[in-house]
Amino acid sequence: MRKAHGRCLDMRRPNTISSSLNKDSSIKDSTHFLASQLSSKTLADKFKSKNSLDSKKEKEGHKDGNPQHIAAKTFTFKELAAATKNFRSECLIGEGGFGRVFKGRLDSTGQVVAIKQLDRNGLQGNREFLVEVLMLSLLHHPNLVNLIGYCADGDQRLLVYEFMPLGSLEDHLYDLAPEREPLDWNTRMKVAAGAARGLEYLHDKANPPVIYRDLKSSNILLDVGFFPKLSDFGLAKLGPVGDKTHVSTRVMGTYGYCAPEYAMTGQLTLKSDVYSFGVVLLELITGRKAIDNTRATGEHNLVAWARPLFKDRRKFPQMADPMLQGRYPTRGLYQALAVAAMCLQEQAAHRPLIGDVVTALTYLASQAYDPAAHSVHSSRFGSPTPGKDRERKGSGGLEEAGPKATRQGGLRSPQHRRSPDGRSKDHVKVEESALAEVRRERGGSGRKN
Description:
This is non-specific serine/threonine protein kinase. InterPro entries: Kinase-like_dom_sf (IPR011009), Prot_kinase_dom (IPR000719), Protein_kinase_ATP_BS (IPR017441), Ser/Thr_kinase_AS (IPR008271). It is a single chain. This protein has about 450 residues and is α+β, with helices and mostly antiparallel strands. The protein folds into two domains: about 15-160, Phosphorylase Kinase, domain 1, CATH 3.30.200.20; about 170-440, Orthogonal Bundle (Transferase(Phosphotransferase), domain 1), CATH 1.10.510.10. The chain has helices at about 25-40, 40-45, 50-60, 75-85, 125-140, 170-175, 185-205, 260-265, 270-285, 300-310, 315-320, 330-345, 355-365, 400-405, 425-440; strands spanning about 75, 90-95, 100-105, 110-120, 145-150, 160, 210, 220-225, 225-230, 235-240, 245-250, 265-270. The chain has a six-stranded mixed sheet, with helices on both faces. Helix 7 runs antiparallel to helix 9, helix 7 (about 185-205) packs antiparallel against helix 13 (about 355-365) and helix 9 (about 270-285) runs antiparallel to helix 12 (about 330-345).
């Protein structure tokens, strides 16, 4: 069962989408507010996709000013109670700060769904409800969970999603039962690439861009074949447009995933999401939780533990999840860690664009690793044994990838030539050369601006 994650809160600013709601507003008033927003052509037009297929659908669906994308169905509480056998405990599949999640079957269609029931205590849940229905009614991508409908009967607020049979990414990384197999390297890279593509859609295809603001392993749901989908959009915000560089808002998110500049100033940017993605990628590589107070002193915070290790690639094998039992490609591990290190730069401007991250991870995911064809490494003690995938001098490995690879156009932060954040030159070289190698091996300069 999915457990709740704490969220870091700073109640300095009102939530913009709910600022028009008084504290005493009823759910009925909220529903009217939601309906007016969903039927607003002006608001819907803000989310016109740059994708040609989406644009074609929008042209077909705007005949009477009602965008075709707004297709969330309204359910009665009675319908959803019937779908979950009156919300019986055996149907409960997860719970968190938002409320409880049940597995159910709709009597009208027979479809198996996940039904999220909001905690009725507090206005925050109502605000998240409004935002999530709004966002998922207007944004559609294979790597975003599909919202089927919602219910706002009386004081009941529920969201109905497509059911994800494999649960969350968190369920497959931590506290595994002895009989359960851990995720292999190929699956981890596949999940990372898919999650990055979902984030890329929000940042680069949605117009205006959307800042997810709550990216974490428990919010990445897995469909058949470990196909990842981002979920829980209650904290999402419209990103800056025009000459604006950030959105000022109260600090919300999950401790351990929040970008440092956002946590300190409340200034939210697309690069705030990139930082959170870096934490998730590091979780996938290391098998460690973002925050784990059961570990030894100095290892409670995943990013703080990883920063010193990023500076020396000889220590990279120590960062691999012991559950992998050495079954990973050395070069792939180095490159994946380099991507994570770039995403986790303390200075937001030094982090890559999510589109460049997608380019790198898509390549890594395409390089299927066959344990039978490679020797096994010792990830627990950090001493990889010789194998077919081990880098050799003179073969384009990390030993030589530096200047040449950089000239060929690697994945870099905008300020790749200098390091005002205090990183060593060797650290910068390792990051740039590894990421440049990904781009070079893929056979092109990658993403177009």
